UniProtKB/TrEMBL annotation:
It holds the Pfam family Ldh_1_N. Residues 156-316 form the Lactate/malate dehydrogenase C-terminal domain. This is Malate dehydrogenase. Gene3D superfamilies: Lactate dehydrogenase/glycoside hydrolase, family 4, C-terminal, NAD(P)-binding Rossmann-like Domain. The lineage of its organism: Bacteria, Bacillati, Actinomycetota, Actinomycetes, Streptosporangiales. The gene is mdh. It catalyses: (S)-malate + NAD(+) = oxaloacetate + NADH + H(+).
Amino acid sequence: AQTPVKVTVTGAAGQIGYALLFRIASGQLLGADVPVKLSLLEIPQAVKAAAGTAMELDDCAFPLLSGIEVTDDANKAFDGTSVALLVGARPRTAGMERGDLLQANGGIFGPQGKAINDNAADDIRVLVVGNPANTNALIAQQHAPDVPAERFTAMTRLDHNRALSQLAAKLQVPVSEVRKMTIWGNHSATQYPDLFHAEVGGKIAAEQVDDAWLRDTFIPTVAKRGAAIIEARGASSAASAANAAIDHVYDWVNGTEWTSAAIPSDGSYGVPEGLISSFPVASRDGKWEIIQGLEIDAFSRERIDASVRELEEERAAVRELGLI
Ligand code: NAX
């Protein structure tokens, strides 16, 4: 039998953690034939709650789950791990400035990056879900100089899936008929969901919807969907975020022709090198590759640039705070 793959989930006692862990243990993260060992990392106050979730995982008797550990020690949690899902983060609370938010998250993602650097397996893949996800991923990456930079990624797959769903509903087609969707930039309200390369029935999506819908309905609906979920549920997206994290890692490991992921820029499409920005990507041989050669018109250029500018500002702010 195959050796179990260790998967670490931070913020394991939170609501995304609760929606994520059972799906990982059932084989949906890596594949139905890959046994997994789970490590649940939490802050000391939440270790007991995470241990309760571990009890429930035991009670599912998942055939692929070969062990569970619960800890508040990052070195232990990341020891020998191959997949790190960094979900736990410091949320923005009332009256908090951006600098305070970045500072608080730097205090989490810097040490976790170092613990990954010092302890993880050679094939480590990191997905940051906790917000501000792109910049938290950058902070973790900068504290892990021995890990190849491209192993640090941030999640825009939820935005991607939201865009697929909104477009499919508009054109009254199954989501499976939408191809080549792309989210560009930051996982924030400035993100740019691009319909000029997306295709439905082999034809460009932007040509099948009117300009006003694309500009005034589609883009803001996708970009502000997180806030709309909070408004409706009284809590932020959890199951859909967990689902997107599963999609991201599954495709990274098993391959895909086209999706969206925030990965370190190599300078493609004018995105400054090193920024962890969302691109159209394929995954081949276990590696993300930016899809090249797309023509970017003025409308798209302006929106990509605005989101990338925000990422540059966040990078400048964390540099100034000495977090990277
Ligand atoms: P919860 O507040 O339910 O859970 C967060 C958990 O993280 C808590 O149990 C907390 O104790 C733990 N935690 C805090 N600091 C930690 C540390 N240093 N080490 C380990 N654990 C730590 O939040 P939840 O709804 O699960 O959301 C988690 C994060 O995902 C938030 O930052 C949220 O903003 C972000 N999201 C990102 C999305 C994306 O698309 N990239 C979408 C969904 C979600 O909003």
